[in-house]
Design brief:
Elements lengths: L4 H29 L5 H26 L4 H22 L11 H4 L3 H29 L4 H8 L4 H26 L5 H17 L6 H29 L5 H29 L2 H23 L23
Helix pairs in contact: 1-10, 2-7, 2-9, 5-10, 5-11, 7-9, 8-9, 8-11
């Protein structure tokens, strides 16, 4: 029912605010509810469900929009209300007891040093994630523009990009069984290399088939990256502060979403697509090295302490 560009902008801002506010909360709830060893599998399930939802909603929206946008948006509002009611009735409160907030209250020097080391490692992880976010945003900004320059149509882009959702839905859960055997450093480094390499291959792509091949490569990287990164964030931070730190992690992705469209568009107009995709491959290699250096030596081998949802031993911050 909104009319005019100003009102639409305000409405879009509110929708974006609500949508982005829910993401770190969902991730914090999963981190609180699930033991450390099962987090990669849990986040994979969440990511898998989200991708199914995206695929189904895209198909339904295309059909329903032919009958007008008002029923479409009203239907979305109803579904969102049902979702909120389901969460309120079925999802338990998971925030740990404030009495257990030992990290912030620890008076001794050793505990303070551990806390500072943890925060520095986490902020380095967020900085690397910002680079990964820039690469992921190019899929929806620079990639369609590059394909258009090659004479391909919007339909061609839709067909190619649909491979991404299909592969995630088909392979995410089987990949989880493999990911659970390793610590986060290897999968994140390999996933980022595949992401950057697949995007870099776009520089020499010239046909629909070769663009599809690039999507297959960087989607394999995405499958390794997404759940492992969310689980790694949960393992890097104290158990009582999952919401705070997951919010900062989400901020890295939101910042990348603001920067990438401008930077990609400027690069395409000035240095051209080949240079843009070459830099993307280099950024992928840089981010892979960053993830590996930050997380090397860490494994999901911790056991939850009796009576807690997630106690982090100080020796994990070695």
């Amino acid at each position: 029912f909104t009319q005019g560009p100003g009102a639409l902008a305000v409405t879009a801002c509110l929708v974006g605010l609500a949508g982005n506010a829910s993401r770190p909360v969902v991730q914090a709830v999963v981190a609180d509810m699930v033991p450390a060893k099962a987090r990669v599998r849990a986040f994979s399930l969440v990511y898998w469900a989200v991708n199914i939802g995206v695929a189904v909603s895209a198909a339904l929206a295309g059909v329903l929009a032919r009958r007008g946008y008002t029923p479409l948006f009203l239907g979305e509002a109803a579904v969102t209300a049902v979702c909120a009611l389901t969460v309120f009735l079925a999802v338990p409160e998971t925030r740990p007891d404030p009495a257990r907030h030992t990290d912030d209250a620890a008076p001794d020097t050793e505990a303070a040093a551990v806390k500072l080391s943890r925060q520095r490692r986490f902020m380095a992880f967020v900085a690397v994630t910002f680079l990964v976010g820039l690469l992921m945003q190019e899929v929806s900004t620079a990639l369609p523009l590059t394909m258009t320059r090659e004479g391909l149509s919007a339909r061609d882009y839709g067909l190619v990009i649909s491979l991404n959702g299909l592969l995630v839905v088909a392979l995410q859960l089987p990949a989880t069984r493999v990911l659970g055997r390793f610590g986060p450093a290897g999968p994140l480094a390999l996933g980022t290399l595949l992401l950057g390499g697949g995007l870099g291959m776009t520089a020499v792509a010239g046909s629909l088939g070769t663009y599809a091949l690039t999507v297959v490569v960087w989607t394999a990287g995405e499958i390794l990256l997404a759940p492992t990164a969310m689980a790694a964030v949960a393992d890097l931070v104290p158990g009582h502060a999952h919401g705070r730190y997951q919010g900062m992690y989400s901020f890295a992705w939101s910042s990348a979403a603001c920067v990438a469209p401008v930077a990609s568009g400027y690069a395409l107009d000035t240095v051209g697509p080949a240079s843009l995709w070459g830099v993307s491959a280099a950024l992928g290699a840089l981010a892979a090295a960053g993830y590996f250096l930050i997380l090397r030596g860490r494994r999901d081998d911790r056991r939850p302490v009796a009576g807690t949802t997630d106690e982090h031993d100080e020796h994990d911050d070695r």
